[in-house]
Amino acid sequence: MRIVFKTDYVQDIRPWKDRYQLGLYLALLALAVAAPWLLDAFYLGELTNVLIWAVAGLGLMVLTGHTGQASLGHAAFLACGCYANIILLEAGLPFLLAFPLAGLVTGVVGALIAIPALRLHGIYLAIFTLALSILTDDIIVLSEPWTGGVSGKYAPPINLFGVMVDRWGTPAPFYWLTLAVVVLVTLGYINLLRAPLGRSFIAVRDSEVSAQAMGVDIARTKAVSFGLSCMVTGWAGALMGLFAGAFNNETFSVVISIQLLMMIVIGGLGSIHGAFLGAIVIGFLPQFLSIAKEWLAPLTGGGSVAIPGLEFGVFGMILIAFLLFEPMGLYGRWLKIRTWFELFPFYRKDMFKRQKTYLRTERLK
């Protein structure tokens, strides 16, 4: 059993609990950097896809997990970042300039959209963002001179320090590019939660009335959260477009928004680890189902037949199981297991019991 003794108040806001935890993260990072030498091209592509979903999950986690604002329209911001990045690249801008600008443009669009959405709460905000995601499909079709309409666009290879980076031609450099974006976004997220702005996000999530009583500007905090969430999601959309190679108005459908929300719920709302765990589930689930069908085909005497909707059906059953038996997600389950080992034999079963009552200030919402 390992016990960490806190001797300084600064330890509560450090990015790492102790040197042991930092060593584990560095070892994981070293393993991720070495992945192109350990995996073949197929599984390296799958790992790249997981990292892209993790960036998108981190973007939604800012808004939903740490600010408490439900969103079913983040596919619209994935599309905004994707198209903005390609349009800027076609205009002749280098990737190191086009990629950050794509995220900034998406963040500004998200902040502007947040202005009328600030009056909405709960299910009404979710319906608003869902309608926005549906509307984006028509906007892409009507903006054919810039977006290519139904025909879509093709992602060109990017030149990065004299190296041509292409998802199909050079999978290893593209993987390292995605990994670098993931590391930078994660470090920025960690420092955001340590800053007063991140604390304001959590205060608004827990109780808007209490946060306002403590001096938090609710409208400004929500707008900033929406903008930051959309900016990170825009970067994920830019990587997703480069990863796909070709895309159109049907690529970023409302199903992506729902899938993204389910991903962070399964991973664990309100935790950075939850975004990565959920991305692993959503990234490797299709391949797991494909392998399982091939393995079960000889045992059942049938062929490997494609079953429409199997992936979303299994994903939905997984979500229902977590909502019923583990609302804290995969990361919440890991916290319970770790705490059990750390506190044994003094662990109490009701330590993580959910609060079933509302604050008096929240009952009328």
TrEMBL record:
GO MF terms on file? branched-chain amino acid transmembrane transporter activity
Q: Which GO terms describe its cellular component?
A: plasma membrane
Keywords from the UniProt entry: Cell membrane, Membrane, Transmembrane, Transmembrane helix
The UniProt record lists the keyword Transmembrane: yes
Q: What domain of life does the native source organism fall in?
A: Bacteria
* Compartments where found: Cell membrane
Query: Which InterPro entries does this chain map to?
Result: ABC_transp_permease, LivM-like
**Transmembrane spans:** 20-38, 44-63, 70-89, 95-115, 122-142, 174-192, 223-246, 312-331
Q: How does it sit in the membrane?
A: Multi-pass membrane protein
Instruction: Please give the chief subcellular localization of this protein.
Output: membrane
Name listed for the protein in its UniProt record: Amino acid/amide ABC transporter membrane protein 2, HAAT family
Give the organism, scientific name. Answer: Cribrihabitans marinus
